[in-house]
Hints:
The chain is an alpha/beta fold and 227 residues long. The protein folds into two domains: 17-66 and 158-225, Ribulose 1,5 Bisphosphate Carboxylase/Oxygenase; 72-155, CATH 3.40.50.790. The protein contains eight helices and ten strands. A hairpin with a 5-residue loop joins strand 9 (205-212) and strand 10 (218-220). The longest helix is centred in the last third of the chain and has 17 residues, at 178-194.
Amino acid sequence: MGKRLKMIEEKNDYSSYFSLEEAVELAIKSSTTKFIETIDICMNLNIDPKNGEQNVRGKVKLPIGLGKQIKVCVFANEDKQQEAKDAGADIVGADELISKVENGFVDFDKCISTPDMMSKVGKLGKVLGPRNLMPNPKLGSVTNDLKKAVDDAKAGEIEFRNNDTLIHAAIAKANFQNQDIMNNIKYFFNTILKERPSGVKGDFVKKVTISPTMGPGINIDLGSLGA
């Protein structure tokens, strides 16, 4: 553990549980690097990840966004490429772009594909899958309505899915106003609640923590989130 993190942890008891307001204040104070850190959220869910029907996956457009420019990549044949460019896509292409990504190019934050390109884009699963960039029709990123898809991506729409029993997501920037961070957290929390699988018994959410990129996790009292 570095000196910076030791000093942070010496000043606060991170094993305690804090109200949402207190947790956000502490997360901001714990963000002491020279760059503007991202505030992340982690939710531990009462699900069986081996049961496909209990996996939690979806997308959400946060009220305040993420405070960053989103670079969007669109796979489309020539007849749809101008539409993608007009919609504001940063990277547009077909076979040559697929080859480029296959060789490791992933300089983008969101990936969209027209349906007719998916037979070719599918082979990029090993590159895009681990980065959660693979276009998915259930999430609206495989579509012919490129304007809506690009608009949603540019607006800071984020995708989420459980990794084992955990869901991680970037939720805000540390230089946001406290209330804006709180609004994003509440909105994300309530979005996940709505995705509760029907087979789950008992409490759906077991634990929620937030943390700056280079800081410790801060436990949130679920009661302060309305749970």
